[in-house]
């Protein structure tokens, strides 16, 4: 195996390798770590982040970024709880429609004007959070989920795992196929690799960009709705800084911030890795949960540096 192959292996599967090491360390170090209850807790709590991260994977591979997903997550939850008084369909479709529209508008602005995704989605972050505060009367009103069927969507279990976990698995598998086995997925990679070259090859650059931001908005809204169903309320204080956790999970999973490389499998590993780190911190007992942010930040910095070094090594090789 040459240097280039080793570099690709580490980039694509490094998060999975580290995840395996941490699981072994946790199993050997703590009796309560390798239990069915703890594993279920990690998987269930990670499922909502994973749904948002799947959409972010497409965005980052295309060479973009979406800072609005945290606000869309909160808005989706508030709209789902508000809509639940009108039935299951409204509770589910209202957040999808509004958050999807927000993603669509951002995608159109980015694709048609050429503005930097960072600026456009930063404006989206602020605008969407403002809309959420307006709906919830500056956060003073917490809407409760009043439809039992919708609440069951977030709380029902099969074999000890809630329905959102199985939905996340289905979405991840579908995203893998979409990214790896379809023309749309190849277009996403092409745009992230070299947008000008992709345009010369006839790739519909603008349309593909619109679709990836639409997808990101839809999945953020869906995750928020599922979380509201789990909590039986649209909590307005959630989602602050969530976009940073999502980006960290995607990048830790091997997706290059510069675009053109990455995958959903790595993203799922990155999400689980952050969940396992939090679980290990909880196992220690005398450490605060804020330490996870320190560990995640340090790990993210190491991953970005490693990606840079591996890219240079591959070019030299």
From TrEMBL:
Keyword tags: Cell membrane, Membrane, Transmembrane, Transmembrane helix
Membrane topology recorded in Swiss-Prot or TrEMBL: Multi-pass membrane protein
Localization annotation: Cell membrane
Residue ranges of the TM segments: 12-33, 39-60, 67-86, 92-111, 118-138, 158-179, 210-229, 264-281, 293-310
Superkingdom of the organism of origin: Bacteria
CDD domains: TM_PBP1_transp_AraH_like
UniProt name for this protein: ABC transporter permease
The organism of origin for this protein: Nonomuraea typhae
């Amino acid at each position: 195996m040459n240097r280039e192959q080793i570099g690709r292996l580490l980039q694509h599967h490094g998060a999975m390798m580290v995840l395996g090491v941490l699981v072994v360390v946790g199993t050997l170090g703590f009796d309560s770590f390798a239990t069915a209850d703890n594993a279920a807790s990690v998987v269930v709590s990670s499922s909502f982040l994973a749904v948002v991260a799947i959409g972010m994977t497409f965005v980052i591979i295309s060479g973009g970024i979406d800072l609005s997903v945290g606000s869309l997550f909160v808005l989706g939850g508030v709209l789902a709880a508000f809509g639940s008084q009108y039935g299951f369909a409204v509770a589910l479709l209202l957040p999808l429609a509004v958050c999807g529209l927000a993603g669509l508008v951002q995608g159109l602005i980015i694709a048609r004007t050429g503005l930097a995704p960072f600026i456009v989605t930063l404006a989206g972050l602020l605008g969407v959070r403002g809309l959420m505060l307006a709906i919830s009367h500056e956060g003073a009103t917490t809407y409760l989920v009043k439809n039992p069927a919708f609440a069951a969507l977030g709380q029902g279990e099969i074999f000890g795992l809630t329905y959102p976990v199985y939905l996340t698995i289905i979405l991840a598998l579908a995203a893998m196929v979409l990214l790896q086995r379809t023309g749309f997925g190849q277009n996403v990679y092409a745009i992230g690799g070299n947008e000008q070259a992709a345009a010369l090859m006839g790739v519909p650059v603008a349309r593909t960009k619109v679709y990836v931001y639409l997808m990101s908005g839809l999945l953020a809204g869906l995750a928020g709705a599922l979380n509201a169903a789990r909590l039986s309320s649209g909590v307005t204080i959630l989602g602050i800084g969530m976009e940073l956790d999502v980006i960290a999970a995607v990048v830790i999973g091997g997706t290059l911030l510069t675009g053109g490389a990455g995958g959903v499998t790595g993203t799922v590993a990155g999400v689980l890795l952050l969940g396992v780190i939090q679980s290990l911190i909880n196992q220690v007992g005398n450490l605060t949960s804020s330490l996870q942010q320190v560990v995640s930040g340090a790990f993210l910095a190491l991953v970005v540096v490693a990606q840079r070094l591996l890219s240079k090594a591959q070019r030299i090789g």
